[in-house]
Amino acid sequence: MVADRTRAGEFSRAAIAHYRRVLTALADAGLTAFVTLHHFTLPRWFAARGGWLAPDAVAVFGRYCARAAAELGDLMPYVCTVNEPQMVALHGYLEGYHAPGITNPILWKRVGRVLLDAHRAAVRAVRDRSPASQVGLAVQLPLLAPLRNDEACWAFHGHLRHEIVDRYLDGLVGPDRGDWLGVQYYRKQWVDPASPTVFAAPPDGYRLTQMGWAVHPDGLRQVLHRAAATGLPLVVTENGIATGDDSERLDYLKSHLAALALAINEGVDVRGYLHWSAFDNFEWSEGYAPTFGLIAVDHDKDFARIPKPSAYAFAAVAATGRLDCAGRAITPAGT
After folding, report:
1. How big is the CA angle at 48 (ends 44 and 51), to the nearest 5 degrees?
2. What average pLDDT does this structure show over 116-144?
3. What is the rounded distance in angstroms from the CA atom of residue 307 to the CA atom of residue 289?
4. Name one GO cellular component term (predicted).
5. Fold of 141-335
6. Alpha helices in the chain (DSSP H)
């Protein structure tokens, strides 16, 4: 939310002024802002009252979104209401390695439903205060697969697919569902009912990132087709790789852009692609160790920015619209 030192019902004028400066700088630089209203973290007072499980959580979030839109809407052409609601629920309330650190097989599903309600409340608030803003939800869609070809594993796969994918996509109905849908894709992920974490390590033969995630380019094409069933225009709002080897990042970029191009050629309405991330970033529980950025950040030298070869390759694709940006043609990714 806007600031963590506020109390219930208060807004930080300093924080609002800060984000106005940020958004003005983006506009002045010719960049299009995609503003996310909730990205995992909560103010302490909101968390202390129960966070997303508080009885008035949706109403409080709606008031915050209305104020943000009223103050900053003229600088927010695109607004994302909630970033990865499934992962807020999964990581924070079932797996327990994000705040609030709960591992409860019931509460994570309840939080998922609350976050869908929060999205709809945010859509209404933004449209009321900033009708020119295009507002949408951003969902992470891993390509889920059963670890084994047996009845129990397939049934468990269907259950998790419903809770992580279908609940959110099928829930985007009605006039307050939004104007667009953000798709965030990184990996193929295997599920196993015998695993204490519900997920299994990738089988042998897959390239793994610094996060331990399995690289599977065609998964992006597949999840885009699934997301297209909502009927909403799509934007790939996150896609990238954590690696210390930029040649791997370049390969990842090429193969996933090729999968994206193939989806578009197959009729999927994709309006844009945002690579994660511009800069090496703080990756939540993992800190600064995973490096997702097209641009390196030297923490020992006054946070100097150092563009990587992949940054120039991505810039060439953006400037030309061509996938042979790195000197050789990109072919569609295999299945």
Report:
1. 90
2. 98
3. 18
4. cytosol
5. TIM Barrel (3.20.20)
6. 13-28, 44-48, 57-72, 85-93, 107-129, 151-161, 167-170, 218-228, 246-265, 309-320
Residue type, 174: G
The active-site residue out of 71, 84, 95, 238 is: 238
Task: Tell me where in the chain the CATH 3.20.20.80 domain(s) lie.
Answer: 1-84+100-136, 141-335
For residue 242, pLDDT beyond 60: yes
283 flagged as catalytic: no
Residue range 84-125, pLDDT digits in tens: 999 999 999 999 999 999 999 999 999 999 999 999 999 999
Instruction: Look at residue 152 and tell me whether its pLDDT is greater than 60.
Output: yes
CA dist list (Å): 35 to 19, 26, 32, 81, 310: 10, 11, 10, 8, 25
CB 183 within 8 A of CB 236: yes
What is the CATH number assigned to the segment(s) 1-84+100-136?
A: 3.20.20.80
In tens, the pLDDT along 204-216 reads 999 999 999 999 9
Distance CA 104, CA 99 (A): 13
* Helices vs. strands in the chain: H and E counts, helices first: 10, 11
